[in-house]
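worker-03 picked up job from queue 'complexes'. Input manifest follows; two sequence lines, order preserved.
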Amino acid sequence: MRDLLSLRETSVEDIRRILETAANLKEILSRSVKKVPTLRGRSMVTLFYESSTRTRTSFELAAKIMSAEAVNIAVAQSSVTKGESLKDTLRTLQSLTCDCIVIRHASSGAAHLAAQFADVPVINAGDGRHEHPTQGLLDILTIWEHKVVGRVDDTYPGELSSHPFDLSHLTVAIVGDLAHSRVARSNVWGLTKLGARVRWVGPRTLLPAHAGRLPVTVHTDLREALEGADVVMVLRLQLERQEKGLLPSIREYARQWGISPRTLSWAKPDVLVMHPGPMNRGVEISAEVADGAGGIRAGIENQVTNGVAVRMACLYLLMGSGVAPSFD
Amino acid sequence: MKLVLAGGRILDPSQGVDREGDLVIEDGRIAGIVAAGTGRGEDVRDVRGRLVTPGLIDIHVHLREPGFEYKEDIESGTRAAAAGGFTAVCCMPNTNPAIDTAAVVRQIIERADQAGSARVYPIGALIRTMEGGQLAEIADLKAAGVVAISDDAFPIQNAETMRRGMEYCAQFGLVLMTHNEEKALTAGGAMNEGYAATLMGVPGMPGVAEDIAVARNILLAELTGCRLHLLHMSTARSVDILRRAKARGIAVTGETAPHYWVLTDAACEGFQTNAKMNPPLRTEEDREAIKAGLGDGTIDCIATDHAPHAPYEKEREFDQAPFGILGLETAFPLAYAHLVQPGILSLSDAIARMSTVPARILGLPGGTLAEGTPADVSVFDLDAEWTVTPDSLRSRSRNTPFLGWKLRGRAAFTVLGGRIIET
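worker-03 finished. Artifact:
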């Protein structure tokens, strides 16, 4: 595995390997001195054509904790504004001898294009509507902690053998603007490869035309989709969807598909609610749920922490020796 | 000056001829077909084992000159045409400046006479680009030498505009060649709206956008009496609609390009920009319907929509890359392998769809080896095996999804008005 471009193209063995590595590396994040020398002398460049504080900072911290150099290209101030092509930008970064390129871009397939021109590993940090593999992985890690191990912790000594990454007893409902969601796509592949049942639910106008051919069941009725769900993943609704004629109003969306204590009651009592962030309170998620009902607060914060752990694992596996460390 | 192409298999669908013989050409015209070995002339070429046909005619080509010569120009484009076995092409008006004034028509004709390896027939624009939606001076364009009118690349969205455009073309007996796309449905799309697009997270262009425009244009053609020709047909439903229109006696014809009977939208997987064109590659069901449409004659002819783009233009983000692929140099072997060999079309029929029929649709000379007609001839090696590589192509550009494909069948050379063209 040279690159991490999509969970669709990542084998289930590699997915498990990344998650196991992340579960092990997570312990470092609870130390007072969060530093290991593992990737010393290596450099990671983040090339973010779309703005992001969360993901970019997460990658930067992950690299620095592992002692790698982290360089960020501020695209808005780079020669991309002079019209420099992605190909030329990639070739330049390579000649600057970095060891790994992390790219986020508004065009689906941009990470694949980057991987074509790069001789070093490329990590897709989100390409258009296509995939966001590290987000999918951190979501799975979070689900594993809550639903398989049964607790959220800093370390999992010996847990991995008794709690493998097998989600076949779980039903996950993903709610919202699925047509435009790269997070939803990555999650479909990651979750189903580990055995989970996945449901997609949202307004018809925000469901991809051929969603039914993916390994998901497709719903427009929220109650139907939430019944018996162990996990509800709430996607952010971009407010411009209403301007584009895809929705009559935000109010109607919130009433029909919003996650509130009322609608959440249709799922299992111990349902885990997740959100990739940032949240629109009162739109896809009610303020009550966002701020405490259903244990969601713990879920979201944990997603963010797991994000750093997952990215540490990816950087380690792609830039390091490639052999998963043994912590037992 | 007599030129003899000796000993080949002479296949002329226009005369129902398919036999071994010598083709005799004198002073740039076909003198006749004689028994093999009996042809006499100053220049005798041995074409035993080869196929000799009327010169192929591609009525849908983008030569990019004037304005985009870095992608292709008349010289390189006609050389690519000749390499593909074409002796004539019709060039689309989306140049810069567009073919919307007589001056540009004359410029193209002159350049082709100077530098061309094939005949070039300009197609005029329906709407003037500079004047914000006004009809081009079509009478002027016709007098200057355009052979048809088209809205290719700028498909007319307004039904009233299309109606008036058709009425105007009809009075001059000009065929209107339409790019059929309801752009409200395809806005932002980069490939067919199907499973492949869902997997790739790429905005899609539903097939129904083409079907709606086809239906509208046919109905308006019926109303106005304008002769309509549907460009680059790609969907099953549009073939259906065309079939029913013909059954009702409406004067409409249709064409399709090789990529629609060879590939589907799966060819885009991996974000392959060399599989990106408009209309896009569609589903397996559409592909089968296109083949059936060719087989039963609903789709009249084959035209490549040869659309060169520079490598750096295609080596970019999938949604940003321009639409279009090459077609001239791979058309014949793809017709041979995927239409003739599986028995969808006879070899004679396939040749007819690429020569006699397009000539008839636009009223062009050619598509025949009848005595006295201009000697435009194609000579093919049916058994020649070759691989499509960047070096094997004569076009200035390289944007074809068939790079790396092993093909069988290739043009050996063409004859243009009695002059041998080697590429």
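worker-03 released lock.
The first strand of chain B starts at residue 2 and ends at 12.
The domain at 55-362 of chain B is CATH 3.20.20.140 (TIM Barrel).
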